[in-house]
TrEMBL record:
Domain of life: Eukaryota
GO molecular function: aralkylamine N-acetyltransferase activity
Family matches, as InterPro entries: Acyl_CoA_acyltransferase, GNAT_dom, SNAT-like
Residue ranges the record marks as coiled coil: none
Keyword Transferase part of the UniProt annotation: yes
Record carries keyword Transmembrane helix: no
Alphabetical UniProt keywords: Acyltransferase, Transferase
GO cellular component, one term: cytoplasm
Name used for this protein in its record: N-acetyltransferase domain-containing protein
Sequence ranges assigned to domain N-acetyltransferase in this UniProt record: 12-186
Classification of source organism: Eukaryota, Fungi, Fungi incertae sedis, Mucoromycota, Mortierellomycotina
Amino acid sequence: MTTDRKAEDLPLEFRLVSADQVPLAYAIEIEEYPESEAASLKNLIFRQDAAPELFLGCYLRKEDDTSLLVGYIVSTLVSGDHLTHATMSSHDPSGDVVCIHSVCVASAFQRRGIATRMLKEYLQHLQRLSDKNKSNASSSAKYKRVLLIAHQHTTGLYRGVGFVMVGKSSVEHGPDPWFEMVYALDH
Ligand SMILES: CC(C)(COP(=O)(O)OP(=O)(O)OC[C@H]1O[C@@H](n2cnc3c(N)ncnc32)[C@H](O)[C@@H]1OP(=O)(O)O)[C@@H](O)C(=O)NCCC(=O)NCCS
């Protein structure tokens, strides 16, 4: 029984979401995001195909040794200082800014610290990738920073893992304003 167990007490594993697992992420996406904000399956397939190293899943290991996807974070690379509508739907392989599109946890597992844990894992993963790219002359991208937009009520989640408020975003989508937040990576 996993009910009420906090992230640190759950057998969680973090690994990249493979192409065949994207529909599982999509099932969570459409369940948890409002219809107007949820990514389409096509979009998630595009993101996994374009930047598989930026699609990290959080899996719960079960007693029978199988695992269940309970959350994920997905991003693409962009260039420039701020997120716009255009950057939100593209991938620039030479970009040095990681644009997070979704941070999502299945509702049965929310408010147990899983998104917090996932974000910390993700930021460490990005730092490792960036360091690897830096030491590999043939590779283009060293990541400078991570950007995302969030509604006011979730900004505390991101502040809690080190993101800093940039300000109100120029992105307009739905009735509520979006706020841009940034996390600086060592580079
Ligand atoms: C937002 C979301 C990812 C949070 O996942 P989670 O695993 O429940 O988050 P955590 O347990 O790590 O939360 C840590 C802290 O963030 C804040 N927080 C998390 N979800 C919140 C919410 N819905 N409203 C207000 N504050 C929230 C709280 O301060 C929380 O601490 P607390 O539970 O001790 O009060 C999850 O609710 C979700 O998938 N929502 C649908 C998709 C979405 O909106 N994603 C964010 C896009 S910007």
